[in-house]
Specification:
Layout: H1 3-6, H2 13-16, E1 33-36, H3 44-62, E2 68-75, E3 81-84, E4 91-92, H4 97-111, H5 118-129, H6 133-142, H7 145-156, E5 173-174, H8 176-187, H9 195-205, E6 227-234, E7 241-251, E8 254-265, H10 268-293
Antiparallel strand pairs: 1-3, 2-3, 2-8, 4-5, 6-7, 7-8
Length: 294
Amino acid sequence: MGDTAALRSTASPSVTAAATGPVGRSAVPEEQVSGSASPSGTGQAVAADVAAAVARAVRPVTATAEGNLSVAVADLTTGLTAGYGGSGHTFATASIAKVDILAALLLQAQNADRRLTAQERAWAATMIENSDNDAADALYTRIGLAAGLDRANRTFGLTATTAGAAGRWGLTETTAADQLTLLQAVFGQDSPLGSAARDYLHTLMGQVEADQGWGVSAAADPGTAPLLKNGWLPRSSTGLWVVNSIGRVDHGGHRLLIAVLSDGSTTQAKGVSLVESAAEAAADALTDALETRT
């Protein structure tokens, strides 16, 4: 079940007016570029070059955006990260919040030294694989709603994400950089989540239904298996679309984490095309820069 049909708990105009970007221009200034070196010692000069390359590649994509766009990408081998756009702007998560909800549930279960119940596993599977919103409602309640998600996100290291109030998980506000941090908790070895929890998330993110396989998967090499979760939502106050995608892809011999967030598109199809173009541009730029400098 997609975001359009069933984010009914998020449809109140009183909470939807603030999250949509302006139509008709890119909201991403050129100076909003970030990059970091790996803990293992990849040089700051290389990190700066990679960040600049990603910015140069993504900038033309932002010129086609009708609203706001932000991209963050990381190479799991070197630990290099780069991001472009979105400084000072937060995005509604829509259904990418479902990865965060499941990660929070798994963290809570791990801390309580228990396994997920059969019901929790059933909800988790349909929430991630089919983007079922009833299952997300149930698990959001199970983790303690906004307070539970915020508490887990502090453990994961997210610093600019605020969980959706009054059960409105789809209106959780976040940034691409924070979504990259969440992906590092899901896919990285240095994570508050144990390997069993991470493997479970990987399995479900690798089994999303076929018609939801767009997004960061556009950057995946042919024959590889991207692991992802997408979110899409028309804002009730404007009719403009939030379209987001997060996940892990294999690209050019590198294993990458990519988060692309957007809002303000006039149609879902335009938002999907924007997100896919940004993911491809960022992946190409990062891997090309790494091949050149490392």
